[in-house]
Design goal:
Blueprint: H1 2-20, E1 44-48, H2 55-62, H3 66-73, E2 86-91, E3 116-125, E4 144-149, E5 155-159, E6 166-172, E7 174-181, E8 186-188, E9 193-198, E10 203-212, H4 229-255
Parallel strand pairs: 3-10
Antiparallel strand pairs: 1-2, 3-6, 4-5, 4-7, 7-9, 8-10
Length: about 260
């Protein structure tokens, strides 16, 4: 009981002492702050050994296990260090910078230039009149081609030939009207005007057909159809026979 009583007196006395004479903050030893090493460009975190350092203090300063410190730096079991020795204490994770999205409305979206395409026109000799270019029906020369766009900015002309389709290249995409006038002596077997919507990268071929006009039948002439002498003789005999028969009938009636 005496020991407990004495201990209580000592604790009470100390408590009273600190209340009367409080410890001032400026009398406390300054707190030691250790700067965290900055990772190198390759991500390695290096610590340089200072005087008085050992594996325990370095482990405590940099929050790394002693065994991990030994493993990273191939240190011996006694963890012998030298002043200014560089120790690897970690590897920082590399972060990939994400592209910053541009807020909508701040930068105008670039407008792609319009595409271009080709329009080819074939006028073929539609000999069978089926409005389709068959294998034995060849291109027809002398037709007049006209290519115009809906906005009136394009107006192109050319002539068809007897070898291949005629092409208008690198036209801006849009709505076009293509027309063909057949050469003289031919009649169209297809429509002579065709609309076309041309998209970028297209190469469109339009077929137009025509066939020779029908020949008129010329009236026969004396040179082309001369009279036959046999037909003349037969005609004369028939005329004379008719006259003789009439004279005989007349004499027979008088005799009665």
């Amino acid at each position: 009981m005496k020991k407990l009583f004495i201990s209580g007196l000592i604790i009470s006395a100390l408590s009273l002492f600190f209340r009367i004479f409080p410890v001032q903050a400026e009398n406390l030893p300054p707190q030691v702050v250790y700067a965290t090493p900055t990772p190198n460009a390759d991500g390695r975190i290096i610590y340089v050994v200072k005087p008085g350092d050992n594996c325990i203090s370095i482990s405590w300063k940099n929050n790394i296990q002693i065994e991990e410190l030994k493993r990273l730096n191939n240190l011996k079991d006694d963890c012998t260090l030298q002043e200014n020795q560089q120790l690897l204490i970690g590897i920082a994770e590399k972060t990939t910078a994400q592209p910053t999205a541009t807020p909508a409305g701040q930068v105008a979206t670039p407008t792609l230039p319009p595409g271009t395409g080709d329009i080819c026109v074939l006028l073929f000799n539609d000999t069978n009149g089926n409005a389709t270019p068959d294998g034995d029906e060849k291109p027809l020369a002398g037709g007049a081609i006209s290519v115009t766009d809906r906005d009136g900015k394009v107006s192109l002309t050319n002539q068809t030939n007897a070898t291949e389709a005629v092409c208008f290249k690198d036209l801006l995409e849009g709505d076009y009207n293509i027309s063909v006038a057949v050469p003289e002596g031919f009649n169209a077997t297809t429509l002579l005007n065709q609309p076309l919507k041309l998209n970028g990268g297209d190469s469109s071929t339009l077929d137009f057909g025509a066939q020779p006009s029908s020949k008129q039948i010329q009236p026969a002439t004396s040179e082309s159809n001369p009279k036959s002498p046999i037909l003349g003789i037969i005609g004369a005999v028939l005329i004379l026979g008719g006259a003789g028969l009439g004279f005989y009938v007349s004499r027979l009636n008088r005799a009665r």
